[in-house]
Design a protein that fits this description.
Strand content: 15-25%
Structural class: alpha/beta
CATH class: Alpha Beta
Order of helices and strands: EHHEHEHEHEHEHEHEHH
Largest sheet: 8 strands, parallel, barrel
Distance between the termini: 30 Å
Helix content: 40-55%
Strand order of the largest sheet: 1-2-3-4-5-6-7-8
Number of strands: 8
CATH topology: TIM Barrel
Number of helices: 10
CATH superfamily: Aldolase class I
């Protein structure tokens, strides 16, 4: 398990999804999100070849490094290593956490998507630095997600030692519920990336962690 970034696994976790961005300048989006106070930033592109993603991921990685914010790449360990990211996030159908942990540098952040206590405990046992729990609310950002509830989040938080991230349909209307259910981090996509002013949207969401 990584320790160098452990203290950073708290707060608002913004995912810049290529499909949700809908043609907007993703590097400019990342800059706005960082200015708004995001604690972590993830790059996710489930459509394009990794070679086409690399220049964008490298540019965002540089911004995050300058801001002192961990940069996580979704799914692809090779792309994460190539662009200089601090970590990778994998799902239940990606490379197992144990394999990623064996291949990744010692202080690399490894996150894992989970949907129940058993999956979260397995991810922790295999060396995950954090687990996400979702989807908590309906979302259009990803169509093949399994539903979870705030009770699921509470159960996972009570069962694991690693930080827990709530994800799925989270916005200003429900973010407090997720934090109160025990989430150390809250991941958002559309609530920031789809807004006219991503910096302001990030500021408002991040402020809930300061209350």
């Amino acid at each position: 398990m990584s320790t160098a970034w452990a203290h950073k696994l708290r707060g608002l976790y913004v995912i810049i999804d290529h499909q949700v961005a809908g043609g907007r300048d993703e590097v400019a989006l990342a800059r706005a999100v960082l200015e708004g106070g995001a604690s972590l930033l993830q790059w996710r592109d489930k459509a394009r070849p990794k070679g086409l993603q690399l220049p964008v991921a490298e540019a965002i990685s540089r911004l995050c490094r300058e801001a002192g914010v961990p940069f996580i790449v979704n799914d692809h360990l090779d792309l994460a290593l190539a662009c200089g990211a601090q970590g990778v996030h994998v799902g239940q159908n990606d490379l197992p956490v144990a394999v990623v942990r064996r291949l990744a540098p010692r202080d690399f952040i490894v996150g894992c998507s989970t949907n129940n206590v058993a999956e979260a405990l397995r991810a922790q046992e295999e060396g995950a630095d954090y687990v996400s729990v979702g989807r908590l609310f309906p979302t259009a950002s990803k169509v093949d997600t399994r539903p979870a509830t705030l009770d699921t989040l509470r159960a996972v938080k009570g069962a694991v030692r690693v930080p827990v991230c709530g994800i799925g349909g989270i916005d200003e209307g429900n973010v407090r519920l997720v934090i109160e259910a025990g989430a150390d981090m809250v991941a958002v996509i559309g609530a920031v990336v789809s807004t006219p002013d991503p910096r302001e949207a990030t500021l408002r969401l991040a402020s809930h962690f300061k209350r």
